[in-house]
Amino acid sequence: MKIVVANWKMNGDCDLVSTFIEKINAVTTTNTIVVCPPVALIGQFKDFRYSIGAQNCFYEDKGAFTGENSPKLLKEVGCEYVIIGHSERRAIFNENDDIVFKKWEAAQKNGLSSIVCIGEKADERADWKSVLQRQTEKFIGKNLGNTIFAYEPVWSIGTGVIPTLGEIAEVLTFIKTKVGESTCCLYGGSVNATNAENILRCNKVDGVLIGGASLKPDEFAKIAMMV
Ligand code: PEP
């Protein structure tokens, strides 16, 4: 059983939700399927058979934080998961490891499963171990039963370039050594219906986080069914 997560980013619309629900509801699988649409579309997923996640949350439940999304309300409107620390949030919205950790704590408090994104940038490739060490440090020794780590090398996101299967296995082994062997770890970065099967068979990979290909319901349906 694998975990297959769709990250729509700031894409999609009501029409795509309808097509997506129709196609993915027809998929029979024991995999855990999670779709993370833009927050404005979450209410359109009422008839979805599988799980909904948010792409981000704030670290407070309520207050004068115009434009932010409360983890408490995300839970209330049906989210089971939340992505935290995506590289786009880190790069564009200046989220650092302290903020990522505070968001994780808020998600935990509200009973949301966190998908914590970690991964090195292109110029950090040679030094990936120190990057991942830094990004996982605060989580070490915590109760991570409700936490999934997604290894997303930033140089692979949206580029079509993926690490070798050996590299993915090596990095996930390193992460699990830090956060615990039983903690779920996903791979994310340019996953599509062609490369997903091999990635999902890769030693240590508990699932995949998919951006671009998750906006194509037929392609996402194929990956969702893989074992
Ligand atoms: C992502 O941004 O989380 C991602 C994995 O994107 P893509 O699949 O498009 O590389």
The CATH topology name reads TIM Barrel
Total helical elements: 8
What oligomeric arrangement do these chains adopt?
single chain
Rg from Cα: 16 Å
Largest sheet: 8 strands, parallel, barrel
Write out the CATH superfamily name.
Aldolase class I
Mean pLDDT: 97
The CATH class is Alpha Beta
Work out the strand percent: 15-25%
Ligand list: phosphoenolpyruvate
Strands of the widest sheet, in order across it, are 1-2-3-4-5-6-7-8
CATH architecture label: Alpha-Beta Barrel
Q: Kindly state the percentage of residues in helix.
A: 25-40%
What is the total number of structural domains?
1
Shape: globular
Which structural class do the helices and strands define?
alpha/beta
H-E order: EHEEHEHHEHEHEHEH
SSE layout and pairing:
Elements: E1 3-7, H1 14-25, E2 32-36, E3 51-54, H2 71-76, E4 81-84, H3 87-92, H4 97-109, E5 113-118, H5 128-136, E6 147-151, H6 165-179, E7 184-188, H7 196-201, E8 207-210, H8 217-225
What does this 3D model show about the protein?
With 227 residues, this protein is an alpha/beta fold. It has a single domain, classed as Alpha-Beta Barrel (TIM Barrel), CATH 3.20.20. The protein is built from eight helices and eight strands. An eight-stranded parallel β-barrel has the order 1-2-3-4-5-6-7-8, surrounded by four helices. Helix 1 packs parallel to helix 8 (217-225). The longest helix has 15 residues, at 165-179. The chain is globular, with a radius of gyration of 16 Å. It binds phosphoenolpyruvate. Phosphoenolpyruvate is lined by residues 7, 152, 157-158, 188-191, 209-213. Phosphoenolpyruvate (PEP) binds at residues 7, 152, 157-158, 188-191, 209-213.
